[in-house]
Amino acid sequence: MAVVENRTQLADDSFVKEKEAAFLEFIQSKGLKTTRQRGTIVQVFFRLRGHISVEELLREVKRVNPRIGYATVYRTLHLLVESGLVEERRFGDGLARYEGRNEVEHHDHMICLECGKIREFSNPGLLALQEKLAEENGFKIYRHRLELYGACEDPADCKSHQEMKGRA
Ligand SMILES: [Zn+2]
Ligand SMILES: [Zn+2]
Fold this sequence. Notes:
Blueprint: E1 2-4, H1 13-29, H2 36-48, E2 52-53, H3 54-64, H4 70-83, E3 86-90, E4 96-100, E5 108-112, E6 118-122, H5 124-136, E7 147-150, H6 155-166
Parallel strand pairs: 5-7
Antiparallel strand pairs: 1-6, 2-4, 3-4, 5-6
Helix pairs in contact: 1-2, 2-3, 2-4, 3-4
The chain binds zinc ion (2 copies).
């Protein structure tokens, strides 16, 4: 089974530029203003990758420009969702997290209830099994979402993620 660890590495510049250009196109098509603040937020978001909450994004954005406030980050994230570049996800804690679309192929999530770490996985066997189950039930699948809740098996791994989260 292919397990992809939650990507914490930073995205490369061309990826970020490409996403920013797509966002600007969307903003202009809606007749909205393209502002430098929005541009900064979009750059920071796509550089971070992973599953990011509004608060986490705000914290990172403020390192680049401390004058950018919560409302601007929130509105920009929602524009990103509207543009289709970003997907909103809510796991067990109900907190909205945002993830860039098409960053990786379709994947599902394993969520640690102790430290909050989110692992990604995908498995062609799982997709085949779903198709089989659907067929047996006379059902057609449009999309699926699978979330597994549990805990990291390795206590050291779990603890290190907790410490990473606590770092402001
Ligand atoms: Zn994901
Ligand atoms: Zn954990």
